[in-house]
């Protein structure tokens, strides 16, 4: 019952299908609560690098589909009337230790050749327009800032109004396909039965779901107080071409949200023990990028998220199963990929074949 499940439930009920949702926690918890919601089409892997990983044709299709997903998501929010503080935002991709100014220019050219415009800005223009310190950056348009909790709640409300049944806390512990249906056993004892099953478990990779090339990482984030000398609402969505990276955006009430400092483990106790040190590091990095900002944290949190070798998610049928799907492994584009997942899974359940389904197919 996080943002991925909510998008799927709304799409399926909107197509006239009956939906039952099970969640072992409850609505709008898990990773949905931790996301900093920079909702953008730019994939974790720059186009120039993704070409080397999966080939030019597939990389270009993946970037185009991500760009289309942003258009579809913005239209969906408006058409459905979901009040989630959605605001169109440009994004600013700062030069860093992964891509310098010359590499950013190559990235801009690669995007241009697939129909995606990004302008290369020099340091002086970045400082003048946004008050951000950077050697160079790519400026793109057509992304979103929004409140992920309100988005999820709005989608769940719509699905429920159309007849979707939500059960929580209820944990699904096993499932099997038999006789043209999927039977799902729960920890409480009752068994559910459906024509199709969709596992939308966020970054928690379940047993039996292929996970080659995917991992779960720990990440950290802070929210500042309301800025006295800086209007954060005018900032673009900002992220760095660095490892470890930094990203930040302004909020509707004038705060800054900033995150990064990822660690390659998912142990909750180890993750949370580092919170103070990680937040201090993020605050210092933010101060270097935004000299006019008060970067002290009013709120701080840690969370887990999935990463993949390619920056692409896993969406599709489970191997050797006809009626069971998985939606997981999102990289840093969770909400954008949730939109794509709702499109792909609905098409498959209705007997269609989405033209880009092969990009996201689960590993064998």
TL;DR?
By secondary structure, the protein is of the alpha+beta class. Helices cover 34% and strands 27% of the residues.
Write the layout of secondary structure elements.
Elements: H1 3-14, E1 20-22, H2 31-34, E2 38-39, H3 47-54, H4 56-80, E3 87-94, H5 101-112, E4 119-122, H6 123-130, E5 136-145, H7 148-161, E6 165-167, E7 172-178, E8 181-186, E9 191-194, E10 197-199, E11 214-224, E12 237-240, E13 246-250, E14 256-263, H8 268-273, H9 275-289, E15 297-308, E16 314-317, E17 324-328, H10 334-349, H11 357-360
Parallel strand pairs: 1-6, 3-12, 10-17
Antiparallel strand pairs: 2-5, 3-5, 4-5, 7-8, 8-9, 11-14, 11-15, 12-13, 13-14, 16-17
Helix pairs in contact: 1-7, 1-10, 3-4, 4-10
Please tell me about this protein's structure.
This protein is α+β, with helices and mostly antiparallel strands and about 375 residues long. Helix content is about 35%, strand content about 25%. The protein contains 11 helices and 17 strands. It has helices spanning about 5-15, 30-35, 45-55, 55-80, 100-110, 125-130, 150-160, 270-275, 275-290, 335-350, 355-360; strands spanning about 20, 40, 85-95, 120, 135-145, 165, 170-180, 180-185, 190-195, 195-200, 215-225, 235-240, 245-250, 255-265, 295-310, 315, 325-330. The strands form 4 sheets. Strands 2, 3, 4, 5, 11, 12, 13, 14 and 15 form a 9-stranded mixed beta sheet that branches. A 3-stranded antiparallel beta sheet has the order 7-8-9, with no helix packed on it. Strand 8 and strand 9 form a beta hairpin. Helix 1 packs parallel to helix 7 (about 150-160), helix 3 (about 45-55) packs across helix 4 and helix 4 crosses helix 10 (about 335-350). It is globular, with a radius of gyration of 20 Å. The mean pLDDT is about 95.
């Amino acid at each position: 019952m996080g943002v991925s499940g909510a998008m799927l439930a709304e799409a399926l009920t909107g197509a006239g299908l009956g939906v039952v949702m099970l969640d072992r926690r409850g609505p709008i918890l898990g990773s949905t609560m931790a996301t900093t919601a920079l909702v953008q089409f730019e994939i974790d892997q720059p186009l120039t690098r993704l070409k080397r990983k999966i080939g030019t044709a597939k990389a270009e299709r993946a970037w185009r589909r991500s760009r289309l997903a942003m258009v579809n998501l913005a239209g969906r929010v408006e058409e459905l009337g979901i009040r989630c503080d959605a605001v169109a935002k440009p994004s600013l991709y700062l030069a860093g230790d992964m891509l310098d100014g010359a590499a950013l220019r190559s990235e801009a050219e690669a995007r241009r050749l697939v129909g995606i415009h990004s302008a290369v800005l020099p340091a002086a223009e970045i400082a003048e327009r946004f008050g951000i310190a950077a050697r160079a950056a790519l400026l793109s348009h057509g992304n979103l800032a929004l409140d992920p909790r309100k988005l999820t709640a709005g989608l769940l409300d719509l699905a429920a109004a159309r007849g979707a049944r939500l059960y929580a806390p209820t944990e699904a512990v096993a499932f099997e396909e038999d006789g043209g249906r999927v039977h799902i056993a729960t920890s409480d004892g009752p068994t559910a039965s459906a024509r199709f099953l969709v596992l939308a478990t966020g970054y928690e990779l379940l047993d039996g779901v292929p996970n080659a090339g995917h991992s779960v990482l720990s990440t950290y984030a802070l929210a500042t107080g309301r800025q006295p000398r800086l209007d954060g609402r005018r900032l673009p969505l900002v992220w760095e071409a660095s490892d470890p990276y930094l990203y930040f955006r302004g909020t509707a009430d004038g705060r800054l949200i900033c995150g990064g400092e990822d660690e390659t483990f998912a142990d909750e106790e180890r993750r949370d023990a580092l919170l103070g040190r990680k937040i201090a590091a993020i605050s210092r990095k933010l101060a270097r990028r935004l000299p006019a900002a008060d970067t002290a944290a009013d709120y701080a949190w840690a969370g887990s998220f999935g990463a993949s070798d390619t920056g692409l998610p896993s969406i599709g049928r489970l191997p050797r199963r006809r009626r069971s799907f998985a939606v997981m492994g999102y990289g840093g584009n969770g909400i954008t990929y949730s939109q794509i997942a709702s499109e792909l899974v609905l098409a498959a359940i209705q007997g269609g074949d989405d033209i880009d389904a092969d990009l996201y197919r689960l590993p064998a």
